[in-house]
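Dear Dr. H.,

I hope your travels went smoothly. While you were away I took the liberty of generating a structure for the chain from your last submission, since the lab meeting agenda had it listed for discussion. I wanted you to have the full record in hand beforehand rather than looking at slides cold. The sequence, exactly as received, is reproduced here:
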Amino acid sequence: MIFKIDEIYGEGLDFEVLESKKHFDIDSPECSLTEDVKIQGKLGNTGQEILCNGLLETGLSVTCSRCLGDFSFSVKSKLRVHFLPRVEDANPANEIELNDLDFEQEFYEEGQINLSSPVRDLILLSLPQIRLCKENCAGLCPQCGANLNEKDCGCVKQESCDPRLAVLQQLKDKLK
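The corresponding predicted structure, in token form, is as follows:
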């Protein structure tokens, strides 16, 4: 997904790319790409800066945070990246203030931009922190480990109280 800057003219460059899932390094036990990544958008050249606006679509296999089962997760996200030429900073220890655009900002070198890194980042950022196979996922039984979405395990559910709060539980029981 490399584009040469001298091929992006004043009116911009429309593109549509279907990149192989093997191109991206997203392959962990809890998340992996199941579909190739489709990206369509437009690159605009404003002198030294390149603006990319587009739409990204793909599919993932994700592990549920509660029941540890795998499920399909679709990603459809807007891609927005602002490319600037890389400039070597003489003093990299300088403090700088970040603004909203800095989080969508990438750098290019040698007259070409590469969308691979921003696309990979967008895919990973599209995932929720707590991934649930369904909204009311029952999870696993804390005693026997059975998947409670599939069957009721029959374990006796005891409401255990933190031993440090046992005195308060006794007081609550007396007030009933």
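Two observations you may find useful: Residues 116-126 form the longest helix (11 residues). The chain has one domain: 2-137.

With kind regards,
E. W.
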